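I hope you will forgive my troubling you with a question about protein structure. The matter concerns a single protein, recorded as an amino acid sequence and a row of backbone structure tokens. Please examine both parts with care and let me know of anything in them that strikes you as inconsistent. Here, with my thanks, is the record as I have it:
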Amino acid sequence: MTAHRKNRISSRPGGRHLAPPALVLVGHGSRDPRALTTVRALRDRIRELRPGLPVHLGHIELNAPLLPDTLATLGTGEAVLVPLLLSRGYHVKQDIPEAAAASPARTRIAGPLGPHPLLVETLYERLAEAGWRTPDEAERRVSGVVLAAAGSRDPEAGVDTRRTAAMLADRLGVPVVPAYASAAAPTVPQAVRALAARGRHRIAVASYFTAPGRFSTECAAAAPWLAAAPLGAHPSMAHLTLHRYDETLTTPPTTTPRHLATAFQGRGERRNLVP
């Protein structure tokens, strides 16, 4: 965010300062306790990067605080909701806008975190931590990566995941096949077999999940060679979250974000966008 922008949202004539709109991290929620620990660590990292910015956490399900409860604590204040989700889908298009519409808070909703180059760099570094090394030419011909994602019936989610897979393939120099834990095909084992059928036997699984959980664990177990950790509280995740917050604040107030337009049509929910 530019200094001009910071000044414009944090001060008013007469020298009285206003707090910036709150950042609400919207996590999916998980029964795996590691997930809550991870998103809390990401929240804390964001607070360190942006002192003075109110940062809150709300979940779609399974973990407290739930998003409606978090929004209730804001009263009629301003907030930007940033989904800790990696592609478009039902939660982004329906669940989060509905929670925002039911709240008196004046909210804007950012797009999902992905696709974005910072996610690709995080995936690369997680693979490196797991043991991936830049292959020589002989190794490159037999190497491949499966990008393991949660999965969605929404076709736009598949578009987003395939775009990330293509970007990661460019970064690694080897084929990257997207695969899914549920609701979409192929599965990780199917993607592994497809790569093996092409003579790619040095296969790693990149974990395209925000935090650990059942899906990420199941996908990792299907790796024939090495499996990377989820994206987690990597510094790039914190920077990307703040980037989504900042770019949402620059959206013209009269414009509904494109990825939410369908969800708002005919439902009278534009009233909760920041005027």
Observations:
- Residues 1-15, 253-275 have pLDDT under 50 and may be disordered.
- The longest helix spans residues 155-172.
- The CA atoms of residues 93 and 121 lie 26 Å apart.
- DSSP finds eleven helices and eight strands in the chain.
